[in-house]
Amino acid sequence: MKGFHYHVDLKSHDPTRQLPNHIEMIRHAWEEAIHLTLRLLSFAILFEEDLKINGRPLSDDAPYQPSFGKWNLQGQPELWGECQPEDFKRIKKVATKTPASEWVISVSSESMATEALAALKRNKLRPGRFKVLYFEQELVDEMSQHLNRKNSLTWIHGESNPPVMQFDFNGLWFDSTFGIFEY
Questions:
Q1: Minimal CA–CA distance to 139: which of 98, 92, 173?
Q2: What gap in Å lies between CA 143 and CA 173, rounded to an integer?
Q3: Lowest-confidence range among 39-48, 58-67, 90-99, 144-153?
Q4: In what order do the strands lie in the sheet with 150-160?
């Protein structure tokens, strides 16, 4: 795969979230540090055994690629993740081509999450399959500033009710919240 490679050593002290020991994120030409930060946070919050930190193209005919995702045995996406999207017409096009997949749109603030919900409605996307995951802007900004080619994340605690998370990223302690809007 083309792009810059970012390595993250992972540890988890949370018995409900057994993260892999190591992941490698690929930064594509169109991505900024904020996209990688959102991808890493989304991966940690949503982690399941089959969740992949790097997306792969939908098909040769439709080269759209998610930020992260999960695929079934036939290679069809079950979960399509987008980080800080700007083009909801593209999301509509891909959502039409992947009618069975769930979607997670990750953004860096609650206000951006509200804008994303409005864009989903404006583009008449089918309700019931989209979630908008948002984080605190200050958290995303600070993590993005400290993102290196080699990183470490130690997950201490996280839960969805109330939506809180505690972790160490590259030696910096974070105690933060997140939220999920459903559409």
A1: 173
A2: 10
A3: 58-67
A4: 22-27, 4-12, 150-160, 163-169, 172-182, 130-135, 102-107, 77-83, 68-71
